[in-house]
Amino acid sequence: MMRLFKKYVVPVVMAIILLMLFNPVYCNEQGLNYLLIWILIGLPFGISTMRFWMVPHKMDLSGSLGVMAFDVIIAGLIGGFVAIWYLLEITLNITWLLLGSLFKRKNFCYGGGKY
């Protein structure tokens, strides 16, 4: 039960909390900035899945901050895809669970055996 909670409920709740938290950042007079939504929502999902980080070496402060900002932006873009994948996986698993319980028959034999 706890594994299902961690796998299904936590990512959805985290995405909803991030949407509400970053609402003043990506909402302005012109409308919604969808790229900024993608990066901000995907950031926690992307940081955990990134395997390669560019580490600034022999750069001044502005170069180091630029490379680190680039790392965060790439993590947010990758995390956007990961977040969409998690949400699709959750939707498909819940659909299969509901359809499986809906069409389940009690006296149905899988494979060999008496009918």
Low-pLDDT residue spans: none
> Quick one: how many beta strands?
2
Strand order of the largest sheet: 1-2
| Quaternary structure | single chain
N-end to C-end Cα span? 33 Å
Features:
71% helix; mainly alpha; 115 residues; two-stranded antiparallel sheet; 4 helices; 3% strand
Characterization of the model:
With 115 residues, this protein is mainly α. The chain has one domain (2-101). 71% of the residues lie in helices and 3% in strands. The protein has 4 helices and 2 strands, in the order H-H-E-E-H-H. The chain has helices at 2-21, 23-26, 34-49, 61-102; strands at 27-28, 31-32. It has a two-stranded antiparallel sheet with strand order 1-2. A hairpin with a 2-residue loop joins strand 1 and strand 2. Helix 1 (2-21) crosses helix 4 and helix 3 (34-49) crosses helix 4 (61-102). The longest helix has 42 residues, at 61-102.
Brief summary:
The protein is mainly α and about 120 residues long. It has four helices and two strands. The two termini are about 35 Å apart.
Topology record:
Layout: H1 2-21, H2 23-26, E1 27-28, E2 31-32, H3 34-49, H4 61-102
Antiparallel strand pairs: 1-2
Helix pairs in contact: 1-4, 3-4
